[in-house]
């Protein structure tokens, strides 16, 4: 079986020895044409992870593992649960600043996690109650204003993951998702009603700024600047958040490349019109406060860090699955401009012979000049570049003829690196098979504290492709367009320049 342009890195244990050698290895034969490639480089199978397909009602136990409720212990030792929150680290909740005290100016003292029915003991075996250590309001929050309504709750001790308790990620994008979102909480089921003892979820859509202004009465005393960019509003014709939902999340869900669904907190419930059919809620936009949040919790809340935590039993997107398959040994390498560089994902190249790699002409003609080294991992061996050959018809800024060759000063050791054979239309015929594409993702770790951003694996994702044309001109420009519409965690599938398709034939 011949694999062309396959650059997926094997996760199998590597044999001892260097990836590249100073002199030609044993059995070295100089090639004369690509036609000889399958016989010069015998395919070897190894195992790697690959992606085979990318791609108000009662909330149930374990459905929203990050949901927390914030309580006030009263004189009879009963706890009154008045606000919601979201667990975003193992010791911090995200909530609203106006939840810092009740109407009698008393601060909350308790947080409960893992419970979806506060009126029964059904979930008590899963629930965790933790005293509050500190309530951290945003420093610019004022109770007389509707702005900066965001806060963090630090627990006296960290909590541990379970079937009912886990952390959520934070939405870092400037705008709210265009898809319908979930708002969850124990708030009242209607205007003037008591808080719900069961966790409720409602489906809401974000409105434009113009629509928000039309729907939300603006008090010039409480909101002298009107609705600001760090706020947004959402609603639906039939549902909304209500009193008691304050501080709770409005969220979306996105999948990683392995089908694990992650909740991302887009906003914090702040205020709104009286809750009834067609009412509208205003939410503090979390992405506007990421820097402040990360400074207070003293850790990164990046997508990479959050999605690398695999200790929870996450919900799964059945259309996205990861399975074991076979593939060639490593042949994808990163280009480096300095020996101390560690970003091997900025530009990639695929090994096609003992000393030659195929890459993008754009990568080797940038302002940085030609790359000086290649490496297979951030901390791996640096192999010096001997020469670079750019396609003579390449024009910067144009996609056509965007191809180049890199000649190395060393020779590939076929025990550790294995060339891929370029597809040749004259030899292999028209490329009619469904291509696959490789993407870079962070390696999973058990806890955020041990996240290592330098650890990477490459995975496959089948994509539907079609011939594309640029500038309305050349029907034979050698370009192949690919497309897949799937809701992934932002940034979880970033391809570096010069990543390559691969296919196979018998």
From TrEMBL:
InterPro entries xrefs: CLIP_Serine_Protease (IPR051333), Peptidase_S1_PA (IPR009003), Peptidase_S1_PA_chymotrypsin (IPR043504), Peptidase_S1A (IPR001314), Trypsin_dom (IPR001254), TRYPSIN_HIS (IPR018114), TRYPSIN_SER (IPR033116)
GO molecular function: serine-type endopeptidase activity
One Pfam family this sequence matches: Trypsin
Chief localisation class: secreted
Subcellular location: Secreted
Ranges where the Peptidase S1 domain occurs: 53-298
GO cellular component, one term: extracellular region
GO biological process: innate immune response; proteolysis
Domain of life of the organism encoding this protein: Eukaryota
UniProt key word Glycosyltransferase: no
Entry-linked Gene3D superfamilies: Trypsin-like serine proteases (2.40.10.10)
Residues annotated as signal peptide: 1-17
Coiled coil: none
Keywords of this entry: Disulfide bond, Glycoprotein, Hydrolase, Immunity, Innate immunity, Protease, Secreted, Serine protease, Signal
Similarity section: Belongs to the peptidase S1 family. CLIP subfamily.
Identification of the protein by name: Peptidase S1 domain-containing protein
């Amino acid at each position: 079986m011949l694999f062309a342009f396959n650059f997926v890195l094997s996760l199998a244990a590597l044999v001892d020895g260097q990836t590249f050698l100073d002199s030609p290895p044993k059995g070295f034969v100089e090639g004369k044409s690509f036609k000889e490639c399958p016989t010069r480089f015998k395919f070897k199978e190894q195992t790697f992870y690959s992606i085979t397909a990318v791609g108000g009602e009662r909330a149930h136990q374990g459905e929203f593992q990050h949901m927390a409720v914030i309580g006030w212990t009263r004189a009879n030792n009963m706890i009154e649960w008045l606000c919601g929150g979201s667990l975003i680290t193992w010791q911090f909740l995200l909530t609203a600043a106006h939840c810092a005290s009740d109407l009698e100016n008393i601060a909350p003292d308790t947080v409960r996690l893992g419970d979806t029915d506060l009126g029964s003991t059904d979930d008590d075996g899963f629930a965790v109650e933790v005293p509050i250590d500190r309530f951290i309001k945003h420093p610019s929050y004022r109770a007389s204003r509707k702005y900066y309504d965001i806060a963090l709750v630090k627990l006296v001790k960290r909590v541990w993951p379970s079937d009912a308790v886990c952390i959520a990620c934070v939405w870092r994008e400037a705008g709210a998702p265009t898809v319908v979102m979930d708002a969850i909480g124990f708030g009242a089921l209607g205007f003037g009603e008591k808080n719900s003892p069961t966790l409720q979820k409602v489906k809401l859509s974000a409105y434009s700024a113009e629509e928000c202004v039309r729907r939300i009465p603006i008090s010039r005393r409480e909101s002298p600047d009107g609705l600001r960019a760090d706020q947004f509003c959402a609603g639906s014709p039939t549902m909304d958040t209500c009193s008691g939902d304050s501080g709770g999340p409005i969220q979306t869900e996105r999948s990683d490349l392995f089908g694990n669904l992650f909740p991302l907190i887009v906003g914090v419930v702040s205020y709104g019109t009286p809750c009834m059919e067609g009412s509208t809620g205003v939410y503090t936009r979390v992405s506007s406060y990421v820097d402040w949040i990360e400074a207070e919790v003293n850790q990164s809340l990046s997508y990479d860090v959050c999605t690398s935590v695999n200790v929870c039993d996450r919900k799964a997107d059945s259309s996205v699955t990861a399975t074991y398959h076979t593939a060639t040994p490593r042949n994808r390498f990163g280009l480096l401009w300095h020996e101390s560089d560690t970003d091997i994902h900025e530009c990639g190249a695929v090994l096609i012979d003992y000393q030659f790699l195929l890459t993008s002409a754009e990568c080797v003609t940038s302002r940085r000049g030609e790359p000086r080294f290649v490496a297979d991992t951030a901390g791996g061996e640096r192999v010096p570049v001997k020469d670079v050959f750019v396609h003579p018809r390449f024009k910067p800024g144009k996609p056509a003829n965007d191809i180049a060759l890199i000649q190395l000063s060393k020779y590939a050791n076929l025990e550790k690196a294995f060339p891929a054979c370029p597809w040749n239309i004259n030899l292999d015929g028209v490329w009619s098979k469904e291509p696959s594409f490789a993407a870079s993702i962070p390696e999973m770790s058990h806890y955020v504290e041990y996240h290592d951003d330098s650890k990477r694996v490459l995975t496959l994702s089948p994509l539907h492709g079609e011939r594309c044309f640029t500038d309305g001109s050349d029907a034979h420009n050698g370009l192949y367009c690919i497309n897949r519409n799937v809701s992934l965690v932002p940034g979880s599938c970033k391809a570096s320049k010069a990543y390559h398709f691969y296919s196979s034939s018998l």
